[in-house]
Amino acid sequence: MIDLHCHLLPGLDDGPDDLADSVAMARQAADAGVTQVCATPHIRHDHDVNIFELPDHLGLLRDALREDGCPVTVLPGGEVAETIVDHLSDDELHAVSLGGTGRWILLEPRPGPLSDSLDAAVHRLRARGFRSLVAHPERHLGEDMVDRLVALVTDGALVQVTAATLDEYPASVGMRILAEAGVVHVLGSDSHSAHHGRPVDLRSGVAVLAGIPETSDHLEWMTEEAPAGIVAGHDVQAPFSARRPR
User: Fold this and answer.
1) Is the pLDDT of residue 221 over 90?
2) Are 110 and 137 contacting, i.e. CB atoms less than 8 angstroms apart?
3) Average pLDDT value for residue range 221-242
4) Mean pLDDT across 228-239
5) Which domains does the chain carry?
6) How far is it, in rounded angstroms, from Cα 228 to Cα 246?
7) Predicted structure pTM score
8) Of 75, 88, 132, 152, whose CA is between 20 and 30 Å from 122?
């Protein structure tokens, strides 16, 4: 499996404080059957992350994992806030794209209900040659959330769900509705440390999706094929349709 959303790089945002914790997180991933992890530090105004220094941080972590013998591959990325998209150059967006291929942006919606501003951000990214992978739908539960996500998916976006929220009430209720509507495509752990919070583990979310008719036949696509295509920069298309609830 591939984890597309993980705050794995140390000392940059609200993720691990040190390299030892980062290595422990990668070890968690390996134990959970995750073979590749996108390191996605927050790219937003309240975190002072220097985008062009990220390759150095990534290199240090890769060296530490090699020395530790950890088999997990760490890929570049970033969790890009909707509110900062227009302030980033194309080169900066390329540098924090998932897999570093300059195609897919992990997009964090602004706080509050999903709004036209997210639609506009997705459209502007597409006009600049990027496709959007919308993160954290569990934070934006509302009456029109499904309709808005269906519209975004129809316009070429995909949706990434934090795996644990599929099994955490009350968020799990909304996440099941999204899965049944065909607007859950890939998973991420959104892990920030091996010592607290969510582990680097997608299995609880996969188990829930296995019990939902709309997703049960597509688990390999959701956990392997789609994320592999995303980090390779391909134009990934879902094998199921997004649809508004009846």
Assistant:
1) yes
2) no
3) 96
4) 97
5) 2-231 (3.20.20.140)
6) 32
7) 0.97
8) 75
